[in-house]
Fold:
Amino acid sequence: MATDTVNIKPRPEGLDKPYVGAIIKTMSKVNVAVYRWTGGLLGSTWRVGSAFPWGIPVLLLTSLGRKSGQPRTLPLLFIEEGDDIIVVASKGGLPSEPLWYKNLVAHPECSVQIKRRKMKMKARTASPQEREALWPKLVAHYPDFASYQTWTDRIIPVVILEPVA
Structure:
C-alpha cells in the first residue's frame, strides 16, 4: 500500500494542546507496566486508529535519557526486516520529535522486548534512501503514519534497530 493510496485523515483539533503529551505519557507508562507484568500477553498489541480492530504488534524500547542517563522505556509500533527492527519517530504527527528519538541519537545502544524476547540493539536513523524504501512498508503496516506525516512539517524519522553481537 503506497502512501498515495491511503486514506489521509484530517488533523485533529487540539493535537498541540499541552494535555495531549501528558495523556500519551500516562498511557505509555500504563502500557509498559502491563506489558512487563504479563510478559507481553497484554499490552503487546495496538488497536487504535487504523489498527482497529485487529491490532498490530508493540515492542518495549529501553534507552538512556540523553540528559539524565537513566533508562527510559516506552511502547512502540514496529516491523521486522530480517534481523533489524524498524520503528517510527512519529509522535502522532506533532511538530517536535519524540524524546525517545533524541535519546537514541545521543545514546544509540538500547534494548528491545517483544513479548518475552529481549534483545540488545543499536539504533540509527535511516538514510533518506532507506527511509524511502521502508516508508511504504510502514504505512502498509499502520496507515495512520501517512496521516501523521501530513500533519507536520518535519520529515518523520525512521529508526533502524540493529542487533548487537
